[in-house]
């Protein structure tokens, strides 16, 4: 028997999934974060997860791949130790640096304060930068803990640090930046980086030839887990926020709309993320209430309400406007009708998002797989199918760690056989 390990580092914790040759789940475990995240905490979580895997499975692990939050980065010395606190995916302190990049970059480059490249320039102004040798994404640094090779990244994580997904390299204007010398070299997700280090193999009773493969971002790992493989197929992640990803034969980019594309083999993964989603529902309803009220909704009929559900002003996609206002009135006395209107409002945002991607040149939508908590609400699924006009199904696997386990098992073949034109 062979086993393959995928590890997912998310915003609230880390998860691990072990699969067999046929993709069957053999083991799952998790580690929850408490308090502020740090590099030592990540390392502890990584080793705790591996230690939780049953000995019999550790003994037959053939490969490992790690996904982590996009644009979470850290500055390291020559030994790979973090020189200061990591900057998380949503850290927006690099506003001044983003403005500098906007002046330097070609028009197609979206310079945002949360991008990895802007954070690298912010690190450059810190005193610790004098001792820096490497700028790594979270997934890069975690994989380094296993294989011991510094300065390697995958082209999904490297995208927000300025990598060009067409050439799989950094463009010339980025290479001219003094800090660019710290950027990691780029390989394909799933590429074999090297065997696990002897020290780690001995400590955890892993085979000496267990491969560590280049990873991906958490959202793309979740897409891989869902199983969409053909142009026109999409995955909607219905969690606290709404994230859309559409597999397309054509690359689409539009900074004004908050749209960008990841390379996926010979295809492109176009998408965007709205600030609407389940967090708005939980502002008004407990989980049990959501379930009971949903049973009283006639999902085949319009609610008659026109909501744009947001927690506060500001939207990213399909409207990119930091001041975009929530629209949550009028509010009826009937709680089920109010929920009906909110679900319909989120579904309209989803439909608008996929229409926008198509207008920008992506392959037209043919079907949607649903992941996240909202995927299990039957009324919501019916409303979404009515507004999207395509079949909507729940993904068989929704955990990002499962997607990374597939990447560990199949390597780059997952991208170039499952996602070929």
Could you list the spans in which at least 5 consecutive residues all have pLDDT below 50? none
Shape: globular
Question: How many E-type strands?
Answer: 16
Number of helical elements: 14
Task: Please indicate the percent range of residues in DSSP E strands (runs of 2 or more).
Answer: 15-25%
Characterize the largest beta sheet: strand count, sense, and whether it forms a barrel: 6 strands, mixed
List the helices and strands in order: EEEHHEEHHEHEHEEHEHEEEEHHHEHEHH
Cα Rg: 21 Å
Structural class: alpha/beta
Arithmetic mean pLDDT: 93
User: Helix fraction?
Assistant: 25-40%
Straight-line distance between termini: 33 Å
Strand line-up in the sheet with most strands: 3-2-1-4-10-9
What features would you describe in this structure?
The chain has 14 helices and 16 strands. The protein has helices at residues 39-52, 55-58, 95-104, 116-124, 138-147, 172-175, 198-204, 218-226, 278-284, 287-294, 335-359, 378-388, 400-410, 413-418; strands spanning 3-9, 13-19, 25-32, 61-68, 73-76, 134-137, 152-154, 185-187, 192-195, 211-217, 233-238, 242-248, 260-264, 267-274, 367-371, 392-394. The strands form 4 sheets. Strands 3-2-1-4-10-9 form a 6-stranded mixed beta sheet. Helix 11 runs parallel beside helix 12 (378-388). The longest helix has 25 residues, at 335-359. It is globular and about 65 Å long. The model has no long low-confidence stretch (mean pLDDT 93).
């Amino acid at each position: 028997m062979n086993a393959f390990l995928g590890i997912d580092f998310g915003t609230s914790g880390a998860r691990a999934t072990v699969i067999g040759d046929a993709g069957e789940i053999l083991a799952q475990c998790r580690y929850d974060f408490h308090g502020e995240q740090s590099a030592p905490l990540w390392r502890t979580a990584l080793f705790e997860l591996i230690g939780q895997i049953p000995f019999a499975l550790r003994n037959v692990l053939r490969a490992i791949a790690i996904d982590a939050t996009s644009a979470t980065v850290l500055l390291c010395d020559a030994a790979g130790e973090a020189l200061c606190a990591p900057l998380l995916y949503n850290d927006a302190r690099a506003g001044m640096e983003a403005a500098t990049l906007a002046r330097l970059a070609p028009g197609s480059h979206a310079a945002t304060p949360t991008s990895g490249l802007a954070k690298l320039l912010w690190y450059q102004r810190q005193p610790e930068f004098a001792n820096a040798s490497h700028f790594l994404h979270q997934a890069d640094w975690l994989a380094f803990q296993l294989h011991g090779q510094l300065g390697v990244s995958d082209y999904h994580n490297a995208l927000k640090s300025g990598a060009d997904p067409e050439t799989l390299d950094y463009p010339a204007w980025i290479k001219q930046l003094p800090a660019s010398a710290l950027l990691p070299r780029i390989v394909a997700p799933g590429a074999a980086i090297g065997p696990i280090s002897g020290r780690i193999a001995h400590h955890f009773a892993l085979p000496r030839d267990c491969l560590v493969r280049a990873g991906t971002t958490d959202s793309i790992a979740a897409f891989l887990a869902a199983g969409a493989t053909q142009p026109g197929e999409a995955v909607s992640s219905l969690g606290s926020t709404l994230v859309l990803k559409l597999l397309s034969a054509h690359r689409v980019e539009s900074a004004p709309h908050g749209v960008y594309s990841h390379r996926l083999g010979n295809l492109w993964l176009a998408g965007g993320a709205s600030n609407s989603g389940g967090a708005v529902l939980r502002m008004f309803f407990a989980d049990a209430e959501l379930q009971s009220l949903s049973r009283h909704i006639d999902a085949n009929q319009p609610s008659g309400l026109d909501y744009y559900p947001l927690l506060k002003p500001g939207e990213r996609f399909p409207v990119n406007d930091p001041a975009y206002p929530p629209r949550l009135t009028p509010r009826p006395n009937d709680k089920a009708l109010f929920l009906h209107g909110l679900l319909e409002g989120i579904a309209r945002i989803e439909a608008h998002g996929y229409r926008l991607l198509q207008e920008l040149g992506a392959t037209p939508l043919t079907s949607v797989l649903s992941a996240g908590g909202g995927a299990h609400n039957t009324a919501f699924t019916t409303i979404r199918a009515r507004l999207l006009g395509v079949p909507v199904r729940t993904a068989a696997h929704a955990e990002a760690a499962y997607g990374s386990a597939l990447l560990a098992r199949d390597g780059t073949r997952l991208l170039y056989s499952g996602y070929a034109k």
